Amino acid sequence: MWFVGGGSLLLFATTVGQNFDVLRRTALLAPHGGAEPGGGPNGFQINKTAAYAGIDAAETGRDAWRLVVVGRTGTVRLSRAQLAGLPLHSSALPIACVEGWSTSDQWWRGVRLRDLAALVGYEDDPPDVLVESLQRHGGHGAFRHAALRANQVADPRSLLALYVNGEELSLDHGYPARVIVPAAPGVLNTKWVARMTFGDL
């Protein structure tokens, strides 16, 4: 009986904050960053806010930010406008966080990862990719970079997303660009992407 009671108390202690904004940071197994779900197209759960991750809004601006893509044929640097000018595709995918929560399907739109691989010499055989974020802290490195396997890159639903639910990503959801991959834990859906290195990792 004491074991059951102790387990119930622990569950309460790790989730109580999700019901009260003032206690939200104490809810270890709940999404953070405001009430859920919020309003508008970007009004769904997040794990880390841009402020918590140390994102400087100035470096994500249209004039400052560039995506660096590295591969077999060299390095390509793309502005957000140039990315948006590439063929765009849509995927309806959720985010499933390793902390035990998930979103419903969101409608993402962006450039297929396999198309980015093709820009740097992998037209027919997209390889693994290392994705690096602008994130400076919060996650001890786990959220700053992610390695995706070749089959994940090749999946036509895997995107470098620029939009969600018909609008640009919010800063908290990874503006200017984030990865969204089917059936991958949220930690691999890197936000605030700065660099993608295709090939031998």
In the predicted model, the low-confidence regions spanning at least 5 consecutive residues are: 1-30, 32-36
The average pLDDT value, as a whole number, equals 82
Computed Rg: 18 Å
**Which structural class best describes the helix and strand composition?**
alpha+beta
Strand order of the largest sheet: 2-1-10-5-6
The coarse overall form would be globular
Report how far apart the termini are.
Answer: 51 Å
Chain oligomer state: single chain
> How much helix, percentage-wise, in residues?
10-25%
**What is the count of DSSP helices, taking H or I runs of 4+ residues?**
4
Order of helices and strands: HEEHEEHEEHEEEE
How is the main sheet built?
5 strands, mixed
Strand content: 15-25%
The beta-strand count equals: 10
Helix/strand layout:
Blueprint: H1 2-15, E1 67-71, E2 74-78, H2 80-84, E3 89-93, E4 106-112, H3 113-119, E5 129-133, E6 145-148, H4 150-154, E7 159-164, E8 167-168, E9 178-180, E10 193-198
Parallel strand pairs: 1-10
Antiparallel strand pairs: 1-2, 3-4, 4-7, 5-6, 5-10, 7-8, 7-9
Brief overview:
15% of the residues lie in helices and 24% in strands. With 201 residues, the chain is an alpha+beta fold. The strands form 2 sheets. The chain has a 5-stranded mixed beta sheet with strand order 2-1-10-5-6. Strands 3, 4, 7, 8 and 9 form a 5-stranded antiparallel beta sheet that branches.
Would you write up a description of this structure?
The chain is 15% helix and 24% strand. The chain has four helices and ten strands. The protein has helices spanning 2-15, 80-84, 113-119, 150-154, and strands at 67-71, 74-78, 89-93, 106-112, 129-133, 145-148, 159-164, 167-168, 178-180, 193-198.
